[in-house]
Amino acid sequence: MQNTGEAVVKELVLVGGGHSHVAVLKRFGMRPLPGLRLTLISRDLHTPYSGMLPGYIAGHYEYDDCHIDLRKLARFASARLYHSPVEALDLAEKRVHCRDRPPVRFDLLSINIGSRPQTLDIPGADKYVIPVKPIDRFLDGWERLIRRILNSTAPFRIAVVGGGAGGVELALASQHRLRQELTKAGRSIEALQHRLVTDTAEILPSHARRTRTAFQQVLASRHISIFTNHRVSRIEPGWVHCEGGQSLEADAVLWVTHASASPWLAQAGLATDARGFVLVDDALRCVSHPEVFAAGDIATVRNHDRPKAGVFAVRQGPPLAVNLRRAALGKAPKAFTPQQNFLSLITTGDRYAIASRGSWSVQGAWVWRWKDWIDRRFMAKYNDLPLMQERQSATIDPRLAGQDALREISAIAMRCGGCGAKVGSTTLSRVIGRLETRQHSDVLIGLQAPDDAAVLQVEPGKVLVQSVDYFRAFVDDAYDFGRIAANHSLGDIFAMGAKAQSAQAIATVPYGKEAVVEETLYDMLRGALQILEDCGAALIGGHSSEGAELAFGLVVNGIAEPGALLRKGGMQPGNRLVLTKPLGTGTLFAADMRHAAKGRWIQAAIASMVQSNRHAAECLRRHGATACTDVTGFGLLGHLAEMTRPSAVDAVIDLEALPVLQGARETMRAGIFSSLQPQNVRLRRAVRNLEEAASHPHYALLFDPQTAGGLLASLPEKTAEACVAELRQLGYAQATLIGRVEPESSATAPIRLLAKVTSQSIGRE
Ligand SMILES: Cc1cc2nc3c(=O)[nH]c(=O)nc-3n(C[C@H](O)[C@H](O)[C@H](O)COP(=O)(O)OP(=O)(O)OC[C@H]3O[C@@H](n4cnc5c(N)ncnc54)[C@H](O)[C@@H]3O)c2cc1C
Questions:
Q1: Taken in order 320, 324, 326, 332, is the CA torsion positive or negative?
Q2: Could you list the active site residues?
Q3: pLDDT tens string 308-354
Q4: Distance, CA of 124 to CA of 749 (rounded, Å)
Q5: How many Å lie between the centroid of ligand 1 and the Cα of residue 50?
Q6: From atom 29 of ligand 1, which residue's Cα is the shortest distance away?
Q7: Atom 2 in ligand 1: residue holding the nearest Cα
Q8: How many CB atoms lie within 10 A of CB 303?
Q9: How large is the C-alpha radius of gyration of the chain?
Q10: pLDDT tens, position by position, 401-441
Q11: Phi/psi at 285 (nearest 5 deg)?
């Protein structure tokens, strides 16, 4: 959680984590601008570095060698990271519309979303080709293609459509890798055929003749046939049809055509060129909207049109950072002229490369090593980040805020306590008005016609089940935090076997400008509301206040038949123990705070936390669960001990079987644990055979505090396996049987751990 402790007076929103924005984040991380809050909205959490992509496809690099971890970089820059594609812009309201979260307000906007291959509208292309962009989806398609080829014994023809540098490199890199894979599998490489198809008269039309000739020779020596002047008009399974009637056989088509722009930019009213790319001036500022900047493939610099290549996106990063800072301070931006000629280092798939600049060209294995050195140095700038001092509240530059805003900030610093700390009533009413709450028949008085208190109807014969949870934010996105907090609170209701009915929210929002407080409160409540409504529960009221840091919780109500309540004390000897979600949120978020977690680990943990326990609870009941609890702050062992005691039973846990979140083994191995872990470890006295179990790699997981963790339940032996199978079908992919219940032999140490280590148990990620 990025808590810089300073008031937010201006919002800079970066859309897309492309090659220019990574430089912007790095520079703002090194030299923050107090009062300017950065938010990065990105469809993907890793930016593939374009220069190393062909090497990755060829098999020379691992994923992390050539991908920039945007979560880590955003954390370094104290920027919030919202993981969602952007789908529209409202320039009048200054809001960015995302697919997976509420709109995001901005004062300054910068767009660096790259491009996608053109002409996917050719009949059959959207269905049958593997487009090279978006790259992460291409990489999935590429891995599937490798498996498909290895599983087939028939000859296999690959057509690469696009004769620019990208197409040529991809043809050579993919052939190199596939030949390696086939050889490894003891298969002949003769069955593999590559062909390069382009509508231009020559390959590499924008490169010098020498470079072109060199590549023609390489392609010929590798038996890759070139089809120039072939304009693809239709694709069908097994065939690429071209204008003029020629058709080529192709079992797979890789699509690397010219770049095209996402349509929502022009639809929003931004000035664009004829192809839909944002038209910017020499300072990278949109010519129609001075508060909007754009860089990389998605921008066309009006006075300096250049090819859509990563090298330009990289070069635009530093001037973009300078101009965003100047724009935030109300200063005139500085013009930047991109270079005319640039050095291209184009690889041939086999650790060999050809360098070209203007009419000059050289080649060799040494050129590949040179390129490899340059590329690794570039990646190190973004993946090996210096540890920065915790940011102190710094004086806000009056140019950033203006005198009125500065007066507002001084007023913020002098906010009262008690009820004076409440969020203002107009802000609150606006937030509630935007929330779109639904009518629920058992809510007699709720948010739709608010009064001093909410009034609920409870059917005769039923009971009200109630619980409360509240904690500080540990993720940057208030919307995700709202969803996680709601799930965490509802876990108690589901564990009791009740149906969620309603909730009251308790929110603390950091002091700030009214508009910033409103957005944060709205995002958090919107997240909570989404989870509540998905479970059929109503948000009926709450209390909000301003404070030092973001915190949120809910009082949740459930309705149950008194005889159907699932208590902790219902475990019976012979039962099996089921855990519905993987463990590890405590260690992962502790690592996140130390910049030691990979972005994808944190994202997977968030995905697990926003998954509701509702369907799992219903499934456990259908399969005859006799006892249940939700695994939260005390860790698996603490919550299990709370079940064995009232049940008067022993429990055996198979450490090897424990489901683990991606990355949690690594962070535990690195000795990173939640600050609550030491207290939880005191519960080890409940374990009978500590000595033999404590060296198992999963031992520490028993004490890891979980946020919005899964349900732990005991089930009859005869239904347990079917229950796990159904849980997995319901989307609880790591639901597992983790142990069994035995007759009580020790009231003080009722838990025994099975600790046999198998070879796969270490280093799975
Ligand atoms: C196979 C291949 C090899 C290449 N090799 C080279 C090379 O060697 N040298 C070279 O200079 N160029 C190369 N290129 C071209 C290069 O990849 C692009 O020019 C470069 O990636 C553009 O960078 P960018 O910063 O504009 O965008 P990108 O690097 O594409 O980044 C775009 C970012 O925006 C995000 N995004 C996209 N859409 C949305 C949305 N709607 N909402 C939110 N986020 C979004 C993405 O997740 C990503 O983080 C190659 C291209 C290909 C296909």
A1: positive
A2: 419
A3: 888 899 999 999 999 999 999 999 999 998 877 778 899 999 999 99
A4: 65
A5: 7
A6: 18
A7: 166
A8: 10
A9: 29
A10: 666 665 665 565 555 555 555 666 778 788 888 888 888 88
A11: -105, 135
